[in-house]
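Hi V.,

You were right to ask for the full record rather than a summary. Here it is.
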Amino acid sequence: MLTRLAWLGIEVKYLEPARRFYEEVLDLETCEPPTADRETVDRRPDSVIAYRAGESALVLRRPTGVPRGGVHTHFACSIPPAEYDDWWERLSTSYDLEEYTFGEARSLYLYDPDGNCVELGQQPVGGPGIDGIFEIVLEVADLEAAEDRYATLGFETVDRGDERTRVRMNGPMALELWEPQLGLADARGGVHVDLGFETENLERVGEVLEPWTCSLERSAGRLTARDPDGHHLTVFER
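Predicted structure:
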């Protein structure tokens, strides 16, 4: 139903230190912000900046409007397996990294200036450098209810935590839903995270969203919703 993660929006207190981290540390290149941010960019260009991460955009926003973007969000970026050791050597000189292995794939974890936990994980991507966002963690109040809601959008549960306080679901990217907790590297699920998705059937998505979203706005070729946990979803047709 949802075919691509178009953007992940996170909140930053000040753009300049965030810009230095994502441009100078993670080597991301700027791109045009999503259409949802164009009016803000025109009015306050110092409030929004977007970076290309493969086929998705990472959008940094100062808290000047709604949706604000996620706070203390844990998200994972794809890097080519062969680049991992170079990333580790480079980043470990300035950051206290943590490493975890998932099967044969390794991931390193570090924090940006606003407390977002950024994971760089080995994935089958071409690169060079960061080439996609493959996982996003949302904090939810009621795990079972949230899982049921995102299942209606086509996400499929593939793993459950031992304590039944988190689930992992596959869709356009891996979506992890966590009840409040600390995860690997003391990461937390994001609060009021903003996600943008593409779809080939906007009418069907609207039918699915309407029963369970707290608000649902329709405009030409676009739906904007807020779920019961305060996360924002924007869905538009390709």
